[in-house]
Here is the input.
Amino acid sequence: MATILNVSGVTKTYEGGHKALKDVDLQIETGEILALLGPNGAGKTTLISVICGITTISDGTITVGGHDHAKDYRAARELIGLVPQEINLEPFETVMDTVRFSRGLFGRPRNDALIEDILKTLSLHDKKDSRIRTLSGGMKRRVLIAKALCHEPRILFLDEPTAGVDVELRKDMWDIVARLKDTGVTIILTTHYIEEAEAMADRIGVISKGEILLVEEKDALIKRLGRKELIIECDPPVDTIPDALSDYPLTLSPDGGLIYSYDTHAGSTGITALLADLRKAGLHMVDLSTRQSSLEDIFVDLVKEDAA
Here is the structure.
């Protein structure tokens, strides 16, 4: 796939010397969904703001669809749609007029048929004549997406798109994002919900303290950094790990069993030796199960390492 967005060596330094972004490199491919994860204050929103032209960069270059972000700002910005965290809509305007006005801000000719198609995609068409103040929080977020799409951008930024909405609406939003991808829109989203990234993203980026720690395909990342755990159920339950098993990476489970962590890509998992030593230690095993570490586990570990 072709690269539609290229961020190279981007730094953002505020007055007082605080560096919100530190030499950030990021390439986004056409038609992909990239989830950008990071703790509060990591630089996610700052990165989106500099790409969208809301904040100026201190150093580095950004190109959007081949257009230099600084030298050809208007052409670059027209390719971008932004859905911000904050819901800031005129409460007494109708949905249709709100979206129509946003299209006009980009100098695009009136096209009500296109706007109606966008509203249908977002399950908003039956609300097109409703005033914004009558809508639920979830519906207002959909209006924000409609506003961001009305000038036909090729890249859509979603900054915490499901913040404050319930689980059902969150899953509806996931479906909407999938449908937008099918139309060829490239999507970059920031989120605090790890399951959101796991459900939707093609690639995962992790940012901490203004630096990109990694950008990798989701499945490859889980496979490369994921751990497996062997859960051993004992009868009777144990409350301490026997000294004879102290050389193994074991922890106690809440129900009185043992949890053994191992690397699936290692030459030997050590499970055979562990089970033999369990018997020698006088423990009676009644059941075994395994579980794979999740994207959340990987994210927490990466951020912990960066903080160390």
Observations:
- The longest strand covers residues 3-13.
- The first helix runs from residue 44 to 51.
